[in-house]
Amino acid sequence: MNAQFCNPTEHGISRRRVLGSIGGTAAGLGLGALGGIVQPAVGEELQKNEKQVLLLWLDGGMSQLESWDPKPNTRFGGPYRSIATSIPGVQISELMPKTAKLMHHLATVRTMKTEDPNHSSGVPKILRGHPKNRGVVYPFWGSAVAKLMGPMSSGLPPYLWVKPGNGGFISKYSGFLGAQYGALALGDGKPPTNLVRPDFISEQTATERRELQQLFNKRYALHRRKGNNEANSYVYDVAEKLMQNQKLFDESTLPAKDRERYGTHDFGRHTLLARNLLEAGVRFVQVTSYGWDTHGDNFNAHSSRVPKVDQVYSSLIEDLIDRGMMDNVLVVMMAEFGRTPRINGSVGRDHWPNAWSLSMAGTGINRGVVVGETLADGTDVKTEPYDIGSMFHTWYHALGIDSKHTEFMNGTQPLPIAHDDMHPVKELLS
Question: Where do the domains of the chain lie, and which CATH numbers do they carry?
Fold first, then answer.
């Protein structure tokens, strides 16, 4: 593994010696929670890697022209100006003045070029890193990180998803890894229901019930598939751990100044919760903001939504710096694609995978860099294009994982964790 990508003595995770030997029965019970680890040293290595991920997902596709790659005074530029940033010569949309002051802490890619212009198929392709088709369903990034790196020493669930609407455990995101690596979705940032132990149940009674439940699990497992057994146990273990940490979800305990800085809108509230979850020791947190599919009235929609992103992202980056978390947390903000330069008849922008932007910051990431350039009117990339596979390689390396040599094991079938033919973007790595 090239030393420029990570420090193998500190947190390197390599080859199939790690994967396939990790059953991951339950998050939250020390090394035993990682399942049957064949080599104890591997488990220790995983536990030592306290790197974390926060994915800010702008579902539907934020316009790059109204954010990271404005084209003012061009035929498709729209009504908004560009403004200077803390990186000399680099400008972003005037809708993001707070983020503009922090650009020297960020890395931006302006030449994302992906294949799929559809939400239904494009979203999973992006979140899976769009690997080569090998006849299996690959895991979403959060599930992959949960498998590769395991739960942190906190014992909290390794993959939480904070979103508007309903919550629940979503096993399908784990693909061939097994249901236990799915996402635990927190609807409106709330924990699963029925986590509070009734007053009439004493601590001793609760312990006895837990022991009885474990006995039942063993009997249940005798004639059922391993993956189903692990998922069944995982649900109980997650619930138990969250019962011990319910204060994490109580917004009233948060300082009023923090709630004001992030904003009382969903994206602000949920990202603030995500910050707390990271501090508490969750490995991977995804926060989703919906409503970015602006086929109509694009400019008014973005004038309302982009300032909220600006407020949230700048507050988050400032907090990670102030709290000394930038060296441990990888932050990525993206969507499934961008928006068309051409403005349609409804004054909207349509789906555009041909040339779009994303942003990142934190552990392992070079600061103050902008990679790639698009054409003057934004219709295509001018310099080297990057598919999502290159980003997955980059982010894995930022987390200390050798993505070219680490493999998943699907039974006896070794599978690469990122697209075989792609590589990390060196300019993005510190």
Answer: 8-193+253-428 (3.40.720)
